[in-house]
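Service request form, structural biology core

Requester: graduate student, group of Dr. S.
Request type: structure prediction, single chain
Budget code: on file
Notes: please return the result as structure tokens.

Sequence provided:
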Amino acid sequence: MVKVGLIGIGGMGRGHLANLVRFTAEGEIIKLVAACDIDPARFENGEREFNIDIGGDAIDFSKFACYTDYEEMIEKEELDMVIIALPTYLHKEATLKCLDKGINVLCEKPMSLNPADCEVMLAKAKEVGKRLMIGQVLRFWGEYEVLKEAVDSKKYGECTGAYFFRGGSLPVWCFERWLFRRECGGGAMHDQHVHDVDMVNYLFGMPKAVTSVGKIILEGSGHDSVSTNYLYDDKKVVNAQDDWTMQDDVFHMNYRVNFEKGTMQFRDDGLYVAGEGEKPVKVECDQENGYYKEVKYFATLIENPDMVNTINPPEASLDTIRLVCAEEESADNFSKIIEL
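Core staff response, request fulfilled:
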């Protein structure tokens, strides 16, 4: 049994909390032992606003220990694993402290705001011999799992182009508006766009260069909208866009990927696939909660020390942050080509 502590139960943490309660109820290999949040009001069952449905019915907080200081929690509780769902600027510090206590860490995305911090986190995990994984959840999301299989198997031939979009309204639910301070959250590029950046990395590997255009709309924020082109030696056309200032109050995550003999499109109403000369057909995908799947996978890695993390190794998350930071540099310099 993997004993888990959760650090942070805001928007993202609340979804993790619901899944951890579900694991405990199901008698899976995971047991929620403790949860921590600096705001004691979070240990109440009020509704939590978030940009997508991540789960979260009423929680009985008496079933596990509650803390307002995570250092006290990791000192007092016997934990095999923590999930860190804190603001981005706290990821490095909390990860290092938990790893130093001999606890395996699943840290929410983005890994950090710069590659140097990521390298320190990776080095610490290796030093203490514990697992570290970053919550790049699209790697466990049904529609993206289908896409990954198609790219790797080449069932429709080679990929010739790909387009990804993610967007919605401003994340005003964030604690003390930390997401709107560039030094804390990095803007939409680091917090939201990072999902599609990671998917580009996962599907196609690191590009040779990137070029980005970004728009800072909120004073003090990072780029609030962005469009990036990824340059590959085979000249496939790959673009990813993000905008968290949309006015329609609907969250969108979409892709269109072309192959030599087919096209896959993930639209707001589902995933559609068209073979060569065929009309698009809706494809049924695994609808299990991606956050549930990633936590279960990480717990399985902990239970099996010799098992290799082939889906979401932390080194890949470091490369994703390198990509995001290159895009940020390009956008800061109006579409300057940044080689990697």
